[in-house]
Amino acid sequence: MIPRIHKRGKRTIGLLAYLYGPGTHEEHTDPHLVASWDDNAPDPGRDPQATLKQLQRLLDQPVQNAEEDSRPARHVWHLSIRNAPTDRILSDEEWADVARRMVAAAGIDDPDQGAGCRWAAVRHADDHIHIIATLVREDGYKPDLDQDAQRVQDEARLLEVELGLRRLNSGDRTAAQRPTSAERHKAERERRERTPREELRETVRRAVAGANSDTEFFDRLAGSGLLVRKRVAPSGDLLGYTVALPDDRNKDGDPVFYSGSKLAPDLSLPRIRERWSGMPDQPETDDSTRLVAEPGMSRPASARRRAAEAIWQAVLVIDHGEDGAVAAQIAAAGEVLDALSKTSAAHTRHELREAAAAFERASRSHVRAVRDHDRALRQAARDLSHGGPALGRGQDGATTAMVIDMLFFLVTAAALWHARKGHAQQAAAAQQTAKYLRAAYSSASERPLGALHERGRRLSLPVRRRHEAVVRQALPDLAEQLLAEPGWPALAATLAEAEAAGHQPGPLLAAAAARRELGTADSVSDVLVWRLRRMADLPADPAKGNPSAGGAASRPTGARLAPAERPSRRSPGL
After folding, report:
1. pTM for the predicted model, two decimal places
2. In b/e form, how buried is each residue of 18-47, taking b as 16+ CB within 10 angstroms?
3. Does domain 2-163 have CATH number 1.10.10?
């Protein structure tokens, strides 16, 4: 059940005409009154003798009786209450009870004192009702509507349980502002897939990802094609900004601007500046060449390899860190997703964009981020942005699969942390993100894992048997599952490469499995492949290796791991 308080209005008759009218697309059927402040109130929908004007005069009577200088400038209060498509259809009597409880919860009506405002609940569809009220009480006083939106939300959660409806998560007021009905209708008229508010939010979010100065941020906004206005104090200090789409115009033909804070709570200029407060100072110049690719790798592949390392460290913080540090890692992970989605190949771009959009809700909570802790992830987002677009094959494609695999575990850890903190909406958003990442991973990993699978099938029989024994000894509880999975040949090929590179396969495999839980993985062998290739410094793309006659590979020239991450050739570190 979704209650929504709309913008207050000045004309009671105008809203009544809409509620009892045919709708914008003839979607209103059988408009009628289900409840009101007075059981004898006229119903223009069912009573042929009743008129909209009669109902309007009765609703407005307390307003007209009040002193002119004490009347509200906007006296029309409007609440819509909508059920989910999967909910059962409520009867008029049930909707009437919902309406009475909602106006009482909001502060519109006061049944105990009998001195509430006048209101009417109109039903013109199976799944929702509208409540109109006028904001002067019968005793001449104004109603107390402080926190009315939160109070009706709380009442909706109770009603969902009592009426057996789909139960929604309680909000904490950290979500981005939803498009208004007027914005949605305008988008429909103009045949836009999304409202301008939603398009702007995504564009600004991407511009923030990895930026470290006002100059870079505003250059990115301008480069994305947005119209940008800066709000400057008399002293010359920059206070804020607004953005608009060039083709989004009002009735006068002027661009419709939105401030950053109206797009999302963390997109105001002061909140954005908090992100780069912990970043190292860098010259205000084009630094697109600052990311140096590792030997034998493209810049996009190098950026993804480094991002995988930073993500793993972030997972450890989310599992064991202080709340402020965890919140910073989760917020910065959103920037990594944004940067990855805008630089990845076409076959993964849609799912990654959906993942980034879903995780945006998970990146904000009332736990304030301690920003200095997110430096590695923000640098990873910066590297991804400056690394440029990645191809869907070779090292670019393989490192994309590797980083998506790591991101899956990060968002899973974030979901668990939010759940422990009681952040229901954020936990649900992180879980939804994981679903999109699964789909993106499936597309990104098909080619590199297919190549590894073929390499594993070509291993000689003695080599295969040796690595089967390694698995049974290192992971006795998982061995039979791993050997039966379709991904086992790829894992065997990776173990052979690690052995040829000078690592002990058994201890390395045990260390990879112990790094974090494997229960959420669709394919345990896939997860271990990417962990092993990262820990052993193997190239993400198996084509970069040079298999020998025995099925092993020569020492690769991939990105180097940080000393704390690089396992010993004799005893892999954790």
Report:
1. 0.74
2. bbbeeeeeeebeebebbbbbeeebbbbbee
3. no
515, two tokens:
């790094």
Conformational region of residue 395, where left means phi above 0, alpha means psi within -120 to 50, and beta covers everything else: alpha
Two tokens, residue 97: 């009870």
What is d(CA 418, CA 354) in angstroms, rounded to the nearest whole number?
20
111: Cα within 13 Å, side-chain hemisphere: 10
Burial 108-137, CB ≥16 within 10 A → b, else e: bbbeeeeebbbbbbbbbeeebbbbbbbbbb
pLDDT digit string (tens) for 35-82? 999 999 999 999 999 999 999 999 999 999 998 888 999 999 999 999
Q: Return d(Cα 50, Cα 58) in angstroms, integer.
A: 12
* Below-70 pLDDT ranges, the chain: 169-173, 278-291, 293, 544-574
The DSSP secondary structure of 373-391, one letter per residue, reads GGHHHHHHHHHHHHH-PPP
Please give the share of the chain, as a percent, with pLDDT higher than 90: 71
- The residue extents of the domains of the chain are 2-163, 190-278, 299-544
Residue 278: per-residue pLDDT? 60
Q: What is the DSSP letter of 58?
A: H
Inter-CA distances, 526 with 404, 491, 544, Å: 12, 7, 19
492 vs 515: CA distance, rounded Å: 19
How confident is the model at residue 115, as a pLDDT? 77
